Amino acid sequence: MTNYASATVPGWAQAWVIWPVFAVLVAVSIGLLLWGRHLDAGAGPPILLAPVSRLARGQQASLRPPHVQRVRGRETELDVLTGMLRRPQGRFAVLCAVGGMGKTTVAAQLATQAEAAGWRVFWVRWRDGAELAQQMVQAALACGLPEAELEAARAGQASLPDVVWRQLSRVRRWLVVVDNADEPHEIGPAGEPVADYRGWIRPHGRGLLVVTSRNGSEQTWGPCAQLLPLEPLPVRPAGQVLLDAAPAAGTAEQARELAARLGGLPLALHAAGTYLAGPTSRYRTFAVYRQALEQELRFLLGATHPNASHPQVARTVVRHTWEVSLDQLAGEGNALARPLLRLLALLAQAPIPLSLMTPDLLSDVTGHDVTAVALEAAFAGLHRYGLLGLPHSPGSTGPASSSSDAAQVVLHPLIREINAVALTAETADLAVWHGALAARLTTAVDELNQRGRAGWPAAVLLAPHLPLLLDYADPRTATHHRTTLNALAQVLEKAGAFGAARLLHQRVLDVETRTLGPMHPDTLTSRNHLANALFGMGEPAEAIRLLRQNLEDRAHVLGPMHPDTLTSRNDLACALDGTGEHAEAVDLLRQTLTDRTRVLGPEHPHTLASRDSLGLALDGMGEHAQAVRMHRRTFDDRIRVLGPEHHLTLLSRHNLANALTRAGEQTEAIQLLQQTTNDHARILGDEHPHTLASRDSLGLVLDTMGEHAQAVRMHRRTLDDRIRLLGPEHPDTLASRHNLALALASAGEQAEAIDLLRRTLDDRVRILGDEHPHTLSTLNALEAALTMSAQRPQSRWWYWLRRRNAAVGGG
Fold this sequence. Notes:
- The chain has 811 residues and is mainly alpha-helical.
- It is built from 37 helices and seven strands.
- Strands 2-3-4-1-5 form a five-stranded parallel β-sheet, with helices on both faces. It has a two-stranded antiparallel ribbon with strand order 6-7.
- Helix 24 runs antiparallel to helix 25.
- The relative contact order is 0.04.
């Protein structure tokens, strides 16, 4: 070393110092180089490669795809994969779904097609990192990888995945399938996500990589992955799968019925078809097998396999295939996934609100402390592995559900049933699970009651699961559970979800009829609730039949002046008035109003309800002035008793406006209806039945005031909403179609008006009868529209004939 400042050699720079320092620097440099190559090859245990000569001679038969029969119902996915095979464009495909959905079968079908078209096909079965490396190297060697490059990787001079993928980038027309890659974090390189594309999963080749996995997370596979999630097979191809396996087991229709019962799950279809084709099977036809499932599901599809501990065996057995995913989740540290899935399996086959599952509930059934973070991780894990799904649409059980944004999940029917079977096998006493779930359902109803309108969407989701309370036959809680169902049903009726409310009332009525007797006061109350729900659903005939029977029974059991008897009489009168039987309704309501005033007082809410209903019936009979006076008084009383924004107060304002319209007071009526429509939308929601009724009435009064175009727009919107929420044949929907036709006729759109009126008449005759007042109203409107449409040409011909006759006479 030279000191350039002094041009003299420093005293410490002796040879015995310089050479050891130099040696240390060289050793450090070599160590850093080797360490860098080690990092490039990926952390974790080194992969022991076989000698290059043996790999080069490796039998490609081990990479052959499995043989499959014709694949049914996966044409869309195969079309996508075939397009990617021709032009990968820097992407790879991931066939993802829950176990038993047929991912391997679809990939094998693609492989068969690719081989037939001249592609080199390599089928890699994922077991562990070492075997994956060996098989990927074999594929690269078959694609022409020089042995020298492989030897360099083997010597640690290059990254083995880099070497393989470099070769796959040089050649075209190859297909690599990595089957059952259910644990992507094990694929490597260790400590790095697959989505970094530094290991064996890369989108860089000139052929196509296809991965099959239970993990369907976009985050797992990265932006270059084309995810192809597999859904259950539609009924028709699913039935054909059964016919392919057991052609002598029955007709195509019977096969489709069994396929629907199995939920279109390919693994279950294969298992059932194999069983039916067996010469020693007890059940040999589709129909008998489907019936046997109701009692013997645990033996036919839920049976355990003696070699279930082997993952490859477990994947092929319906009872065990989902346990593979649960074991993998447990291996990831998500031990809560299994008990969560078991608990969800105890609920009904319907969307489940996530809010129903709480850490405390899971703590009660597992005996361990559960945090909200752990519960969310369990939900995420189950969804990632396809064991939980998301509903495709909220459903149409009522207005509250149409705009529901409450988080919810669904279970495949067989996943639910088999997990319930597994829970029974694992747990000697299910009382703890049933008790914890019953307590949580009861608490959930209390929470919804407190939330008011904000809880309506969750109430619709909760409704199908609540009847489970009645299945827990504990006499100590039976009354409490029935009360809980009635409480939720009342929430649903406020929300306008009469269909969901009807199901709850029917279940309670069935249980009470069986346990308490048909004449017990509680049974009579439930029958009244059911009748009102039926009327709200648009089934007035059955509702009136039940209400008449209930009025008679309550008068006999409770006496004619009991408040419950008066309620039955009032509800019967309202149903009669709603179907056009105004005269009988007026008689019943006058009597009920008098009795309620004497028994309950003039300002009791039930008394005000009778007075409001009487006003409606009088209006229907043409007594408009008397109806206006009665509605004004009721409206004022309800403001004072219930408050200006109570839903019954808004209803009184709406009824007053309608009476004013018929009395010719359109100016005041339209002001009241505009205010009521806005208040209903703000307080109850845009799609609540009361909001739609106010909008419908507003359209009618606008039409009478000559605002035909605006009335048409309003009626179209209301008709669309009612069809979507109530169905095309609900009486309110038919009323909207009738009113739209009237507005169109007033606007000069006779052709469309006549078409709507003809359809409405046909529906009302079929649903209500040809003598019903609403049917006759539509008939009269149709005759008037037909007359209007024929008036001008008829008049023109009449004037022409008159002129001609005059000319002839003058001549």
